[in-house]
């Protein structure tokens, strides 16, 4: 009988934000899998490090961050094949996922490859979205407010349309797009409503008005824009 | 010295989806606060029940679910006053919040009332959003896809515009709006892309194509629409 693949959300980075179910699954895992930046650290593994059994087998997927998709696809193909072999051998595999597995997470690529052939269970995790809101002490949305999640690399026109249509907008994957996003928000009269959050829940967490953020943002950064149409009182 | 108010996300309902930090804070709490439906159960308290110390003081806010806002506002005013008194007496207060405190959560109303006067810390939780995605085995968004969260009670025109603009749409607060939302999605050619999820992570969880859902949905239900513009491979 084949094993089960668990896609386990670890939350935004602070190991204390791992759920009890995720912690139990990782502690009991004989095989864990995780992505890492090619040649570098695995953020997912670092979050869960204290929970991984010393004798657990580790399947590491070195995923290059390139604009061309083919190298990453090849890394997920190879990882999926190794995981499939473990599942076929009867082992369960716990795949470690930063944040939530289905929210801009790399687990989606494994899910697409393996769910047609194996039993897959997904354990949701705390997303960077609400972790950033907590860090910024900023409610995201209430009652009938509309919230949109916008990847920063999108073109200006698309960003502008969504900025106008929603009550709350979260720009993810800010990184090198920060100056362009700030110019756009300024032109829309929304700079004062924009908060910048970097590395939420980690030791190096930083929160400030977007107006004060420097131009060179890391990949793990976010801009929160709440128009405050509803006074929440 | 005044105590600290903690707004603690409990996740979507399964107590195993409580984070380790939330669990520790609740176990150590001498005073807990939570909303309940006037005269009825508190869902938040039920999720955390096993963690609350037998001798903890409990501040219960009976919040009526009426279209008129005044009765709920009065309930939060009274709750905030009781919590403020405990904080002034030097006790920390742990406020139990379904899902995440800042994501369509009632904690926002306490935060607005108490953050100007007291130290408030928010502990993010797993949202119903990703819990429903996990239950439906449905990735939400990847790469540069745009995701919008839409409250079901919004008027048709607003819903339609957002349905067209985003790659993934999550309709929350479905309840009695289900027939109208289904008609709208059908007219937009999106019925086949729509999944219905009810009471995610609870014993009574149900997942099915929206086409097969019955007209009378409970409040804790959601419709997930993924256009699948990106093949995730």
UniProtKB/TrEMBL annotation, chains A, B:
InterPro entries: 4pyrrol_Mease, 4pyrrol_Methylase_sf, 4pyrrole_Mease_sub1, 4pyrrole_Mease_sub2, CobI/CbiL, CobI/CbiL/CobIJ_dom. Pathway: Cofactor biosynthesis; adenosylcobalamin biosynthesis. Residues 4-208 form the Tetrapyrrole methylase domain. Keywords: Cobalamin biosynthesis, Methyltransferase, S-adenosyl-L-methionine, Transferase. GO terms for molecular function: precorrin-2 C20-methyltransferase activity. Its EC number is 2.1.1.130. Belongs to the precorrin methyltransferase family. This is Precorrin-2 C(20)-methyltransferase. It comes from Jannaschia ovalis.
